[in-house]
Design a protein that fits this description.
By secondary structure, this protein is mostly helical. It is built from 22 helices and no strands. It is 70% helix and 0% strand. It is globular.
Length: 553
């Protein structure tokens, strides 16, 4: 180690030491557990998890919905813009997943860079993503099964001949908000996870491959059937450029799921190498698939005639290819449950890390001899099954979306805090500037929403929007100029690069700041009841943190 006149730079070594400590914990196991999570996931396994968790309703529902109501044939541009925006946060996850190779994703990153309170918020938001999303997808799958069975009704048959059909519908859709199909698929996913990590990994790999082949078939078949006339005008006048942007806002949620790769870092064979690669490969694959199917669907069917709920099956029927419609409809019912399995798989791992830290009960940190978290899986599974069976998806949507976006924002900020620091003569400047940036970004989002949603916008709203956006740019530029890189300062302390061998997010702090802005803009687009729900939920997380601190004393 070199001597340096910057005595206060010693504190800058803390994150490097924390990285060493985390790696050591993964090698030696936690002291309060007899067993540790086994490292058994290869790069292929991680990519399958990423694709399995990400590709879902985005392909099967959102592509058609956005094409018909927001962007027309230019729907592919919406998905491309959203893919680029998702990469801003995705590259941040790629760096931190390799830098902190332990289970827990954003919870771990927040704990190491911002402290326990931020970590509690991140853990609560990740729970919305894992348990909440798994419940919502299970619920959606149950609704799709009912809708598919309803196509079996024979309107020409007599009342007695249709009695079996009415009985089946009564069983599948008994009313009162109860969804038996969601119960069955949730239960099946939990039982498979309880059977062991290796078995669930094999199922994930098989079904992820099937899902990729199904979407590839949809893209190829629709592109073959594409008609150039359906692509003109490419940007319909009633939608315009603002419609493409609104479509990109909706499309962004189709990319959510890749971050679950990071929650499995503690089980990756070579996390520092494979986690960044898996995230980047997943984002490239998913973006390519989304753009291909968007072009195919918009070319196959005039955008005015695209179904908002079942774009591809109805699109193939529109062109007379009923066999392709059946393959797509049945294929969706077969592969969509994979999202439930992969998403709930991450929740016991998050609970494990939080339990090791003393935030959750110790029972959630129990690992059996084969590296399975059976106690944690049972508890998370029961909660997911109850939510999926009893709570309609419409009550979960905005709360889950906002929670995921907050977790993304925390991760983006964590990269900045890992890589940048306050100047020596102005301590905590970076932290203060980040808080200001988040506030003005959220304000800009609300003002941009007002501007874009109104046919005629007053001069006052336009001025406030431009002023807020300019303030956002000013604060971001000040972070870039006034807050130096830790990497350059640490060169004074080490004879080697402290980040040697790690994937590094490019264009820091600009790229993470762009990710924060996109996430907060999307949060500002949610309905008021959703904003109130996430505010109350975060408030409960903060309250739980202080209660936990009190219990420790």
């Amino acid at each position: 180690m070199r001597t340096s006149s910057y005595g206060s730079l010693t504190s800058l070594t803390q994150l490097t030491q924390q990285h060493v400590n985390i790696s050591s914990n993964n090698d030696n196991g936690h002291q309060n557990n007899h067993h540790e999570l086994h490292r058994h996931l290869s790069l292929f396994d991680l990519v399958c998890v990423g694709v399995g968790a990400t590709v879902g309703s985005g392909v099967f529902v959102l592509v058609g919905l956005i094409a018909k109501t927001q962007a027309g044939p230019a729907v592919s541009l919406s998905w491309l813009i959203a893919g680029v925006a998702a990469c801003a946060s995705g590259l941040c996850y790629a760096e931190l997943g390799g830098r902190f190779p332990s289970v827990g994703s954003s919870y771990v990153y927040a704990k190491e860079t911002m402290g326990e309170c931020a970590a509690m918020i991140a853990g609560a938001c990740l729970t919305l993503e894992y348990t909440g999303s798994a419940s919502a997808v299970a619920r959606s799958w149950g609704d799709k099964v009912v809708a598919y069975v309803q196509t079996w009704e024979d309107e020409d048959a007599g009342e007695d001949d249709n009695s079996w059909y009415r009985l089946l519908i009564c069983v599948l859709d008994p009313g009162l908000g109860i969804n038996p199909c969601a119960f069955l698929i949730s239960l099946g996913a939990v039982l498979l996870l309880l059977d062991g990590v290796k078995e669930s990994k094999n199922v994930t790999n098989v079904f992820s491959t099937l899902k990729f082949l199904l979407v590839f078939f949809m893209a190829t078949m629709s592109l073959v059937l594409a008609n150039r006339e359906n692509m003109s005008p490419f940007v319909p006048s009633q939608f315009g450029a603002s419609g493409i942007i609104r479509g990109a806002t909706s499309s962004f949620f189709g990319y959510i799921g890749f971050d679950e790769i990071c929650c499995l870092s503690g089980e990756a064979i070579n996390p520092s190498r494979d986690i960044p690669r898996a995230i980047i490969i997943t984002l490239l694959l998913v973006t390519s698939l989304y753009c291909a199917v968007s072009v195919g669907l918009a070319g196959m069917v005039p955008y005015q005639d695209i179904s908002e709920t079942s774009g591809f099956p109805e699109g193939f029927r529109y062109r007379g290819y009923y066999w392709a419609a059946e393959i797509t409809a049945i294929g969706e019912l077969i592969v969509l449950p994979l999202v439930v399995l992969v998403t709930i798989m991450a929740q016991p791992r998050l609970n494990y890390t939080m339990a090791v830290d003393g935030v959750l009960p110790a029972v959630l940190s129990k690992v059996d001899e084969e590296g399975n978290l059976k106690a944690g899986t049972k508890i998370a599974g029961v909660i997911m099954i109850a939510i999926a069976t009893l709570i309609p998806f419409s009550y979960l949507d905005d709360l889950i979306s906002s929670g995921i976006l907050i977790a993304f924002t925390i991760t983006d900020m964590s990269v900045i805090l890992v890589r940048q620091t306050s100047p020596l003569d102005n301590p905590y400047l970076l932290e203060r500037m980040l808080v200001v940036f988040l506030v003005v970004s959220l304000l800009s989002g609300f003002l941009l929403r007002s501007w874009l949603s109104l046919d005629t916008t007053g001069e006052g709203v336009r001025f406030m929007t431009l002023l807020s956006c300019a303030s956002t740019l000013f604060v971001g530029n000040r972070i870039r100029k006034d807050c130096p890189s830790k990497r350059s300062l640490m060169g004074e302390l080490y004879d080697h690069e402290p980040d040697e061998g790690l994937f590094l997010t490019p264009f820091v702090p600009i790229l993470p700041l762009c990710g924060c802005f996109v996430n907060l803009y999307l949060i500002s687009q949610l309905e008021p009841i959703g904003l109130a729900a996430i505010s109350g939920y975060v408030g409960l997380a903060i309250g739980a943190h202080f209660y936990n601190l009190h219990q420790r004393k």
